[in-house]
Specification:
about 200 residues, four-stranded antiparallel beta sheet, 1 helix
């Protein structure tokens, strides 16, 4: 009867394997992180585009004003800034009540949607005023503003405020609601900052 001796890995072979794995991880992890940031940013953009399309459709279907405003608490409008990453509300009210662009009032308006804070993505708008679709689904002017623009950029890990960063790893997006109510979603140019142009 022959006894075979089993031979394991030598310490040098194990060290070489660990070194190769470490190099592969160093290459793969940043690429994976960038992919995750791009996917998350795209999801936030698609959520707001969907919410804007919903608001426009509801205005035309209900024949009411449907407005959107920034809201950090999910129950009142906050118009002191233009960052929508604090969250926002979408609500409907009678077109004959007191005109468009009203701040949300739970006793008078129907709350349709609330979107919570998105601290890892900045959403900068043209301004912080209420944005409204009229009974036909067309945007209603608010002072001199007839269209609105939203710019989305991912923030660096650990940051929860500021305009975010537009770079090759995670390019930003611009969503424009035109005077006809059309929504245009475009990728930011490499040199563009994370603020609206209008």
């Amino acid at each position: 009867m022959t006894i075979r001796s089993s031979r394991g890995f030598s310490i040098l072979e194990l060290m070489a394997t660990v070194a190769v794995l470490a190099i592969l991880m160093a290459i793969a992890v940043p690429a994976f992180r960038g992919t995750m940031r791009r996917a998350h940013l795209s999801n936030i953009v698609n959520t707001m585009v969907g919410d804007l399309q919903f608001a426009r459709s509801e205005a035309a279907t209900r024949h009411q004003f449907v407005s959107m405003c920034r809201s950090s608490d999910g129950s009142t409008c906050a118009d002191d800034d233009s960052n929508y990453d604090v969250g926002y509300l979408i609500y409907a009210y009678d077109a004959s009540s007191a005109g468009p662009n009203q701040a949300y009032d739970a006793t008078k308006h129907s709350l349709l949607r609330t979107t919570p804070i998105t601290p890892d993505v900045s959403i900068q708008a043209t301004d912080g005023n209420v944005f409204t679709f009229g009974q036909t689904g067309l945007p209603v002017a608010n002072d001199t503003r007839t269209a609105i623009e939203f710019v989305f950029c991912a923030r660096q890990a650990g940051k929860t405020s500021g305009a975010g960063e537009n770079n090759n790893e995670s390019p930003g997006s611009r969503v424009t609601v035109g005077v006809s109510g059309s929504l245009i979603n475009t990728k930011l140019a490499n040199s563009a900052n994370c603020l609206p142009t209008e």
